[in-house]
Amino acid sequence: MPKRKLNEHDVPEASEPSSPSAPANEKTTEEQATFSSFGLEARLLRGIKEQKWAAPTAVQAQAIPLALEGKDILARSGTGTGKTAAYLLPILDRILRQKDKRVTSAVVLVPTKELARQVSTLAGRLAAYCGQDLKIQSLAGNQSDVVQRAKLAELPDLVVATPARAAAMMNSGALSLKELSSLVIDEGDLVLGYGFKDDLAYISQNLPKGVQTFLMSATLSTDLESVKDLFVRDPVVLKLDDLEKDSQLVKQYMIPCAEEEKFLLIYAMFKLSLIRGKAIVFVGDVDRSYRVKLVLEQFGIKSIVLNHELPLTSRLHIVEEFNKNIYNILIASDETEILGSMNKDESRPTKKAKKDDKTESGVSRGIDFRDVSCVVNFDLPSNYKAYFHRIGRTARAGKSGTAISFMIPKEKYRKHKPTTFPGSENDEEVLKKIEKHQKQGQKIEDWTFDMKRLEPFRYRFADALRAVTRIAVREARIKEIRMELMKSQKLSRYFEEHPEELEHLRHDQTLNHPARIQPHLKHVPDYLLPGGRKPQDIGFVSLDKPKKRFVKGKGRKVVRGRNGKIDPLKTFNARGKGKK
């Protein structure tokens, strides 16, 4: 019976029923969707519950139902928005429901080995309750071709690899795509930049008809269109603005400074706790990363370095430990944006990509860094796209973040040769492009920091900077590579058998040889702090050295000649006066 209310004449009348087409508490598709509402296999739902995911993200809510219908999908969504699970869940569900024989029915192609390991790890967690019904194999490790062929001979259901490794295994006959039903190309806009064009063409030519294809990317670029033409014809295109929503939560600041002042600023930021929480410091190349690390070590500030020279197992462990909050400062080199050197040990030589505006960072893309509160662009990247991908490492999942960038004006470039970085020559031009491509509501603000307040620190900083020579940087670089190689090769089997011991493996050891460490630099006196206490008054202290007390009869030097007489030219007392 409908409720009644009084009209203007105080006469009760029935209220109008609410329109069924526009309920008051109408919810969007994303808000209504749950993982159980997708009809996924029960064992996968248990795996999802273990991940403690409350509800699907936007890309998952839109992509999973379409994927379960068998449609090809082209989705634009940033790292950390849940796109990996968006394609893994329907693929794993399909494998479990159509399980009649052991065949390789799904292949995931990614641009870097780090991303391959992340994808296979997540797939293993989601399939944790599937037992032997679902077998996953990653070709991203350091195993030899013989070992990888042996593992592929077991016909894993899902294979994760780079395009070069997948093409090599196909060429050797170890990997067959005859029974393939699903193909994923993750970070599709990056694979061409890493020199995988020929490999992708080879894979495309050997695909059977009717393969469901997922093309996931952070941008809809011209490179992505080339990949799309190779693999999909009429996909459902999902354009999600997760990246824009998150990027608007980033507070962006720019600091014009001299070349040597970069090191002074980074020291002050961490020593005075101007930056709280976890931070990623992006630098221009590998040498630069070790120079920054050594300078920070002079003041007792620990950090870790991530670059392509380190062994793969070390890089993966560094990222995992950083995400677990074991380390707070990570110094990342962006040198991988040119060579695609994450894949330098593939079976085929990697082609060198052109260094133009299309290249993007391998460190700032593809790797999921969690809970980063601040990104510091110690060296600005060579193009504006890399800048936005860098600052996208913070302000994830609705959280706010900060991006601080150092910029060298042209009049200050090459004014301090020991700290000059060639990439800083065009900082002003790069900054103009960054400002030009800012989204609506975004802007770069000047960080109004009074450099005069750092004047008391300059003498300490200059001392530390002089100690970090080119030889010190080279030796530190060699030292860490040796240390990490020892850990990754000699101890890899031990850590496989004793995984709990891996927690005690550190990557932030001091690399101070042969840089001179001065213990007093680790402590900051109160009187150096801006607005700090003055030194305690201990009374008058003379600048003269205290005079030694002269004792009569001591300190006298007497030299006698052959005749027994004293030689006045060779005899002096302690005060320097001759004595006869």
Salient structural properties:
about 35% helix; nucleotide-binding; alpha/beta; Rossmann fold; 7-stranded parallel beta sheet; RNA helicase activity; helicase; ATP binding
Description of the structure:
- This protein is an alpha/beta fold and about 575 residues long.
- It has 3 domains: about 40-240, Rossmann fold (3-Layer(aba) Sandwich), CATH 3.40.50; about 245-345 and about 360-530, Rossmann fold, CATH 3.40.50.300; about 545-580, no CATH class.
- The protein has 20 helices and 16 strands.
- The chain has helices at about 30, 40-50, 60-70, 85-95, 115-125, 145-150, 165-170, 190, 195-205, 220-230, 240-245, 260-270, 285-300, 310-325, 335-340, 385-390, 425-435, 460-465, 470-490, 490-495; strands at about 5, 10-15, 75, 105-110, 135-140, 160, 180-185, 210-215, 235-240, 250-255, 280-285, 305, 330-335, 370-375, 400-405, 445.
- It has a 7-stranded parallel sheet, with helices on both faces.
- Strand 1 and strand 2 form a beta hairpin.
- Helix 7 packs across helix 9 (about 195-205) and helix 16 (about 385-390) packs across helix 17.
- ATP-binding RNA helicase involved in the biogenesis of 60S ribosomal subunits and is required for the normal formation of 25S and 5.8S rRNAs.
- One of its GO terms (cellular component) is cytosol.
- This is RNA helicase.
